[in-house]
Amino acid sequence: MGTDWALNPKRPRFMLVHDVPGHGPCDENPARSLIYTMKHVVVPCVALALLVACASDRKSGGELERLAGAMDGGTPVRPIPTGGSGGSMAAGTGGRSGSGGMTNMGDPGGSGGAGGSGGVMARDAGSGGAPGMGGSGGMPGAGNPYAPRSGSFKMLAYSKTAAFRHSGSIVTGHAMLDQIAAEQGFQVEHTETNAFLQRLSEFEILFFMNSTGDIFSDAEQKIFEDWMRAGGAFAGTHSATDTENGWAFYSEVTGQYYNGHGAQNTMGQVRFEDGALTHPAVAGLPNPWVRSEEWYNFNQWQTWTAKPGFKVLGRLVTGSNQPISYIREWGNFRSFYTAIGHADVVFKDPSVKKHVTGGIMWAVRREHLIK
User: Fold this and answer.
1) Gap between the Cα atoms of 31 and 33, Å rounded
2) Span 118-137, mean pLDDT?
């Protein structure tokens, strides 16, 4: 046992490796054999195993990347991200925008959704989503689209004209809308261009203040229609029915394109329907409501007022009982229209402001909040 084992011909032999070219018989020296085995067998096998594990991790979505992305962005770790994928080293595509404000009750809109996880590397995570629709007051989500809403909201007052222009009443009408907004606690923005359609989700109601003519392109009509069907609201005065003749969906909102009118500043009486006396656009007004106006005619009213959701609030006391003010609740939207509003003095009348206030607040599902 005291003899040097390297010189003992009966020592045990190490069989880990065989003769290696250029190194002699490694099994003659156990230490060299062990070092060679670790360097040329064990280490390469471990490296190969790590490469296989990394490839498997990338194929499954990259748990490490998801963890790193979650810690970096503060979003919950999810098994599979909803964001778009990126290249192996390129920045990934951002995730789907959030849907803030899409609540049944229409409470103030929420924040945007989390961004996608992007490409393979954790740093490729996509950016956060855009703010949700109806952020100022909220648009309805699943459930009852006509359920009461709360909170402030934003209205777009639009007075673009491509035909006759009611110059005086447009000015006084916008001033009246400013007063209503201040009294009821909502925001109003005024415009005569169509740029607002690119950010229509900011608004909860569009008010057509004596617009006229063909004002929307086909693409813009589609934007308006989609927004209305998603739970939007509309209000219009007087020549809002002298607008977009031939656009079928607009007629679903406003009844029909008007069929001419009588002489300007003619005295008449508006009698409110028995079933409409408690409506916020009518309650508190005299009945009949005696007014001087340019009275519009609607020769097809018996057809469209029979459609689901239409309700006449008031009629001109004449032989034909022309509807003068009416509403519609249909297709997820609410709309209010009044034929009142030809002359500039009309919108200085407190009773007209009361009438329009009730129409706006009803259209945005906040009639219970009228001050």
Assistant:
1) 5
2) 35
